[in-house]
Design a protein that fits this description.
The chain folds into 3 domains: 189 residues, Glutaredoxin (3-Layer(aba) Sandwich), CATH 3.40.30; 178 residues, FAD/NAD(P)-binding domain (3-Layer(bba) Sandwich); 104 residues, 3-Layer(bba) Sandwich (FAD/NAD(P)-binding domain). 44% of the residues are buried. The strands form 6 sheets. The chain has an 8-stranded mixed sheet, with helices on one face. Strands 9, 10, 13, 14, 15, 16 and 27 form a 7-stranded mixed sheet that branches. Helix 3 packs parallel to helix 5, helix 8 runs parallel beside helix 13 and helix 11 packs parallel to helix 12. The N and C termini lie far apart (67 Å). It contains 13 helices and 27 strands. Its cofactor is FAD.
């Protein structure tokens, strides 16, 4: 039996929502994965009269496809979709059976208007928290469009294929046999990359907002909710709704929430914002801000949005090491998410750059997967004592302090890292196959130039009410000079900025 009693009970409830019959085409051999895949598919069929199984040969073995009767819908799982991909399997069963995806009609129309044939292959790992978003988005596209197929490939099962294509980060997507993308992407982002997205003309009719929020992370979502609850015209424009939270794995310090994961929290934030009359403009990046009669925010697509007040909550992004070799070998041995990409380095030697909490957590995570981890800290290791204690119990981890990274070396992919010992000034080289960069964040404020006062780190300087050096412009979250960069702090500062903006509107 592949599924435990609790999971089977939950699955049984979902399968009752199926609206029609589906055909599972199963292609298996005599290996262990094939045996487990057969067991899973047989269990599914035993739980619903709507599920029928046919043994056949598919492009990959072991794999199975989920189809409408007498047609190839185009959703295939090359590997066993458990772990983070279990939800992808459930949604595929429901959607292929006829249950409509929870997707905006505007997006559905964009998918149906695509011309040509699109055959997507998504290389994933079952421990990757970003992979299901991509798998599920492409599965929706294949359900809605007859000329789109979507295949999830478990990199741990098809190792030779992963090696041949030199895939060293997940999710990695191929389209019609050619590299398409690497990293988390939403359905809207995929459509935008395919050339199906909003242009400046779609924003021309928008009237000035009472509050225009730039950024859709925890601070922006909080600001939007607090503004909308005041009954004022609120708009939020975001590069990607959820922000950096989408790249966060386990969250255990959000008060009243024992544990959640970044993508789940981001989805909840967006769902909460949508409970109010907020104009959400996703996948749009701001490029300029200027105060005229209104405060104008120009987007990269050329559109200009106006607000009586503006709240900047553009967040931060992972800081790069900034050393030779980093850009050349990005996704060719250099990674920024140990949880996502760690399984691709099983049995190999890797390094982690960074001696803070994120660096030590990554080293601990990787130690259970790879052959050996070398942690490189520029000074001393500064992670929480409990993390350091755990780190020092691991026999396959070496800690090197006072290391100045000189270069990440490689040929077609990473083969080593060079550093200078700050105490001896001697250069050292370590042969390895992967480097994980975990050295903090940098605020997304470059687009503001000198228009708004910032500190030496590029963080927006704010007052107690979130106001900035431009009257009517407020800021919140990780893009500000807030002392602590935490989700709950960002939420609070978003609420503060919204209340400050409302007070500004009343007084002006």
């Amino acid at each position: 039996m592949m599924l435990d009693t609790e999971i089977k009970s939950q699955l049984s409830q979902y399968l009752q929502l199926m609206e029609g019959d589906i055909q599972i085409k199963l292609s298996v051999g005599t290996d262990d994965v094939s045996r487990d895949m057969s067991a899973l598919v047989d269990e599914l069929a035993s739980m619903s009269a709507n599920i029928h199984v046919e043994r056949t040969e598919l492009d990959r073995t072991p794999s199975f496809s989920v189809n409408r009767p007498s047609e190839d819908t185009g959703i295939t799982f090359a590997g066993i979709p458990l772990g983070h991909e279990f939800t992808s399997l459930i949604l595929a069963l429901l959607q292929v059976s006829g249950r409509a995806p929870k997707t905006d009609q505007k997006v559905i129309d964009q998918i149906k208007k695509l011309n040509g044939s699109y055959h997507f292959e998504i290389y994933a790992s079952l421990s990757c928290h970003n992979c299901p978003d991509v798998v599920q988005a492409l599965n929706v596209m294949s359900v809605l469009h007859p000329n789109i197929t979507s295949t999830m490939i478990d990199g741990a099962v098809f190792k030779e294929e992963v090696e041949a294509r030199e895939i060293m980060a997940v999710p990695t997507v191929y389209l019609n046999g050619e590299p398409f993308s690497s990293g988390r992407m939403s359905l809207e982002e995929i459509l935008l990359k395919l050339g199906s997205g909003p242009d400046a003309s779609e924003f021309a009719h928008k009237k000035p907002y009472d509050v225009l929020i730039v950024g859709g992370g925890p601070a922006g979502a909080s600001a939007a909710i607090y503004s909308a609850r005041k009954g004022i015209r609120t708009g939020i424009v975001a590069d990607r709704f959820g922000g950096q939270v989408l790249d966060t794995v386990g969250i255990e310090n959000l008060i009243a929430v024992n544990y959640t994961e970044g993508p789940k929290l981001a989805a909840t934030l967006e769902e909460h914002v949508k409970q109010y009359d907020v104009d959400i403009m996703n996948l749009q990046r701001a490029k300029r801000i200027e105060k005229k009669d209104f405060i104008e925010v120009e987007l990269e697509n050329g559109a200009v949005l106006k607000g009586k007040t503006v709240i900047l909550s553009t967040g931060a992004r992972w800081r790069k090491a900034g050393v030779p070799g980093e850009e050349e070998y990005r996704n060719k041995g250099i990674a920024y998410c140990a949880h996502c990409d760690g399984p691709l380095f099983a049995g190999k030697n890797v390094a982690v750059i960074g001696g803070g909490n994120s660096g030590v957590e990554a080293a601990i995570d990787l130690a259970g997967i790879v052959k050996h981890v070398t942690l490189l800290a520029r000074s001393t290791v500064k992670a929480d004592p409990i993390l350091q204690d755990r780190l020092h119990t691991l026999s396959n981890v070496t800690v090197i302090e006072n290391a100045k990274i000189k270069e990440i070396t490689g040929t077609d992919k990473v083969n080593g890292i060079s550093y200078i010992d700050r105490e001896t000034e001697k250069e050292q080289h370590i042969e390895l196959q992967g480097v994980f960069v975990q050295i903090g964040t940098i605020p997304n404020t470059e687009w503001l130039a000198d228009n708004i006062e910032q500190n030496e780190n590029g963080e927006i300087i704010t007052s107690k009410d979130g106001s900035t050096s431009i009257p009517g412009v407020f800021a919140a979250g990780d893009c500000t000079d807030s002392l602590y960069k935490q989700i709950i702090v960002s939420m609070g500062s978003g609420a503060t900025a919204a209340l400050g903006a409302f007070d500004y509107l009343i007084r002006n």
